[in-house]
Design a protein that fits this description.
The chain is α+β, with helices and mostly antiparallel strands and 801 residues long. The chain has 18 helices and 43 strands. The termini are far apart. It binds 2-acetamido-2-deoxy-beta-D-glucopyranose (NAG) (5 copies). One 2-acetamido-2-deoxy-beta-D-glucopyranose (NAG) binds next to loops.
Length: 801
């Protein structure tokens, strides 16, 4: 009895807490960080408000979406000042103020909204995720409810449907995927009423979206409407008062959605996939990750490659300042004073093609020759680090002399070169070539938050308690200790690794299998059904009787977290012409993927056994193109396959094709990716685009090339390997399959003539001539040596239909 009484007493000395699930917090009550049940739940159950752990003993009061596998935070009260895991609470005072207090700093609140009201009031979490503080004025007839504060007016990095972005609000990205505190990127209404994305670093700041080169009016924006309101609706339509608007790729379906200023500087719309319980990207502001400013610091350049991802590298003559933080950029290897004019050093210029550095122009001058621009830069002495040189419409050149080299990037879409000014001896020294040096590129590595709980030293409640307890005797004191100890322990159990783990799992929408489960399913990995560069595939039957293809990856030296991160991207993809991934297993060395099983095996086997008539072949061509087009464009994730070949195109019971093994290029051989030119090569001889061999930039056009070869193979029935060995040349640069077909087409007197020469004899003349002609023409476009001349996969789909 005594113990029970005591525990009850313990509870009551704190402010009265909530007991049952509710969407409202009444006046004079509070939500405590220590009680998992102290949360508000919206009446439809979609959103909750409560404390979320953001680090070791660090909590933020948040509103989060609860239907996803792991909670999705949509708003935070105190993102930059997390509170302790003990004694912290959010209280709604009788005078109308809402205050968040921390154990360490009882007197000064961590966060408060400074409202005041003499009317009765309550805090309510609404069904749309808005947390509102409202006064309730009772009149004779009804209750007048007035909102005096709402979380929708103070967004963090997320805008929900129906929530307005206004003159007074902005979206600020978080630091990193795991660190929720304010980062460097911001969506806001500028002074000229246009909606913009801004990079605001510790030293530099600049707007990068919409393109800073263009005037708002040229981008269809209006700068005259001073209203400043932007809004996303549940159907995927976004409108802004500056006349900017867009539709998401899944418009006009009604989904849970959110517009998020992501930590990587891109603005994205996510739609909630009810089946997978995950968020999928359905729109993003920029398709070029390097357009975001502040990725790589001064004197370095950002480069994007589909295989390696976004990377930074130092310009020639410069070396990295801090290997852990690329945003600090690179510093000169030569003495900076050498750039001045009175040192007698002679200079040269290094040309960087298709490159730009944004901002910090000393002067823009029209010149008629490169020499003139070089002289301008030399004349400016140490103030000019290089210049941007661009042809302009009036048949002269624009010369932008640069005092700082920041926001550098290279891209085929940039017309204009940069000339880097360097002392002659630096210029002539043979240091590394510029291209493809994948280096660490993370802006801010997340560090554990060292906010350990300190026992409140002079806490009046506690000391009173202790005196009180003494009165009851030693036994009770022991009990308190046990209670305290228990609370303390349970709170400390969640360490950071766990956080990261859960975060990653939340992003993946499928099942995690244990190794033993898969061992049982595949009868000890006995029924081998395929073997490729990536690993061995076994047939298996899962617990729920689904037949699966179980792929054990070899040579996957990746860490678990990295592996899960890649898998989460693959798992988001969902298309009828892509193989469905059901799950994965990561245990020790094992990296295993579980896919749906395809009755009819691969296109390669089917071509070999001659089981495909022309109709089926044509369907496979169209379906495969659709699957690849989705990978490249529609899902906005820009996944490259990098190994398109008949062995990776599987056929279901109705002979519909499904592309397999996409996304694997990132999972395999990760650690030797950067060591040499050759390890960069992915794919299979005979199907590989010339870019791999010449070490050019890898874009989605490598898949287009391989697809073209597959088309030629389907039409002719001849494998490109076969033709290779016939000619015995072995060179990839001169693709025999392509030259063979091209010569036939060129030398034939009529279309009918070359078609008969090329088409697979196994078809016995049963084919649609127009379709064959179209297919071969498309294929020949796909296998052009110059990747810029190849169509995109979605253009291929259009041409085929
Ligand atoms: C409700 O309260 C607001 C502000 O307190 C007041 O302006 C409004 O007239 C009231 N409405 C009704 C119907 O009483
Ligand atoms: C300004 O923008 C608001 C919100 O988009 C719109 O309702 C209003 O009609 C606009 N005003 C003008 C003059 O275009
Ligand atoms: C730009 O540089 C040229 C050449 O030094 C000079 O004549 C001109 O006045 C400068 N313009 C500005 C705006 O500083
Ligand atoms: C990247 O960072 C890791 C860890 O900080 C370090 O071990 C590695 O050497 C770095 N790589 C390069 C190329 O700087
Ligand atoms: C998040 O980043 C901020 C600023 O860099 C840092 O102070 C804080 O410790 C980080 N928090 C976590 C949980 O890593």
């Amino acid at each position: 009895m005594q113990i029970q009484f005591f525990l009850l007493f313990l509870l009551f000395t704190k402010t009265i807490s909530l007991t049952s699930t509710t969407d409202t917090l009444p006046q004079g009550s509070s939500l405590s960080v220590e009680k998992p049940n102290d949360i508000l739940i919206s009446s439809n159950g979609h959103y909750s408000a409560g404390f979320i752990q953001v680090g070791d003993n660090a909590f933020c009061f948040s509103v989060y979406f609860t239907k996803s596998k792991q909670p999705t935070v949509v708003w935070m009260a105190n993102r930059d000042q997390p509170v302790n895991g003990k004694n912290s609470k959010l209280s709604l005072f009788n005078n109308g103020n809402l205050i968040l207090t921390d154990a360490e700093r009882k007197r000064t609140p961590i966060w408060s909204i400074s409202t005041f009201s003499t009317f009765p009031l309550q805090l309510q979490l609404q069904n749309n995720g808005n947390l509102v503080l409202e006064t309730l004025q009772k009149t004779e007839k009804s209750t007048n409810v007035t909102i005096i504060w709402q979380s929708f007016d103070f967004p963090t990095d997320t805008l929900l449907p129906g929530q307005e972005l206004t003159e007074h609000s902005s979206l600020v990205s978080s630091k990193s995927k795991t660190n929720f505190s304010s980062g460097f990127y911001k969506l806001y209404f500028d002074n000229d009423n246009a909606l913009r994305l801004l990079f605001k670093g510790p030293l530099l700041a600049s707007v990068y979206w919409p393109s800073p080169w263009k005037l708002p009016i040229d981008m269809g924006r209006s700068t005259y409407n001073a209203t400043k309101i932007a809004l996303l609706d549940s159907f995927g339509h976004f409108t802004s008062s500056d006349k900017y608007q867009f539709h998401t790729t899944d418009y006009p379906n009604k989904f849970h959605r959110l517009l998020k200023m992501d930590h990587d500087g891109n603005l994205r719309v996510y739609s909630f996939n009810e089946k997978m319980k995950t968020w999928e990207v359905t729109w993003q502001a920029t398709q070029e990750p390097c357009e975001v400013h502040g990725i790589c610091g001064e004197n370095s350049m950002c480069s994007y490659d589909h295989v390696i991802g976004r990377t930074c590298f130092c310009l020639k003559g410069y070396k990295l300042k801090n290997p852990h933080d690329w945003s600090q950029g690179c510093e000169p290897e030569f003495k900076p004073a050498d750039l001045s004019c009175n040192r007698g050093v002679s200079f040269g210029f290094l040309r960087l093609q298709n490159t730009e550095f944004f901002g910090y122009d000393l002067n823009v001058t029209k010149v008629t020759s490169l020499k003139q621009c070089q002289d301008l830069c030399l004349g400016l002495c140490e103030r000019c680090k290089g210049f941007q040189f661009k042809f302009n419409r009036e048949s002269t050149y624009d010369c932008f002399t640069k005092t700082l080299l920041v926001n550098g990037r290279d891209s085929h879409n940039i017309d204009g070169d940069v000339f880097l000014k360097l002392p002659k001896n630096t210029l002539l020294s043979s240091t590394m070539p510029l291209k493809h040096l994948p280096l660490n590129c993370s802006i801010a590595l997340s560090q554990p938050l060292n906010r350990l709980y300190e026992k409140p030293s002079k806490n009046s409640t506690l000391s009173f308690l202790v005196w009180f307890a003494l009165g009851f005797g030693v036994f009770e004191i022991t009990m308190i200790f046990i209670v305290w100890f228990f609370l303390f322990r349970t709170n400390k159990n969640n360490d950071n690794v766990d956080q990261v783990q859960r975060h990653l799992l939340s992003a993946t929408g499928f099942q995690k299998f244990s190794y033993s489960e898969l061992k049982t399913a595949t009868k000890g990995f006995t029924k081998e059904i395929g073997r490729g560069g990536g690993g061995i595939v076994y047939k298996g039957i899962l617990d729920d009787d689904r037949v699966a293809a179980v792929k054990c990856l070899n040579e996957a030296h990746q860490g678990e977290a990295e592996f899960l991160a890649e898998i989460s991207t693959i798992g988001m993809l969902n298309h009828m012409n892509l193989i469905d991934m059901w799950g994965y297993c990561v245990e020790g060395k094992h990296r295993i993927l579980v896919y749906e099983y395809m009755e009819h095996g691969s296109l390669a086997e089917n071509l070999c056994s001659n089981s495909l008539d022309w109709n089926k072949r044509f369907n496979v061509a169209v379906g495969t193109a659709k699957g690849l087009a989705y990978l490249h464009e529609e899902c906005l994730e820009w996944v490259l396959h990098c190994d398109v070949k008949p062995h990776n195109i599987l056929l279901d019971t109705k002979f519909q094709p499904k592309v397999a093994d996409f996304g694997l290029s990132k999972l395999l051989n990760r650690d030797d990716r950067d060591s040499s030119v050759f390890s960069r090569i992915r794919g299979t001889r005979g199907y590989m685009a010339p870019e791999w061999v010449y070490n050019l930039k890898i874009t989605s056009k490598v898949d287009v090339y391989s697809y073209g070869i597959v088309l030629l193979e389907m039409v002719s029935g001849k494998s490109p390997m076969e033709i290779h060995s016939l000619d015995n040349s072995g060179g990839i640069e001169h693709h025999r399959m392509v030259t063979w077909v091209m010569e036939k087409v060129k030398n034939a007197p009529t279309t009918m003539f070359w078609i008969e020469e090329i088409v697979d004899g196994n078809l016995e003349g049963k084919y649609d001539v127009n379709q064959v002609e179209n297919l071969v023409k498309v294929a020949l476009k796909c296998v052009k040596d110059d990747m810029n001349e190849r169509p995109s996969m979605s253009q291929v789909v259009e041409m085929l239909l």
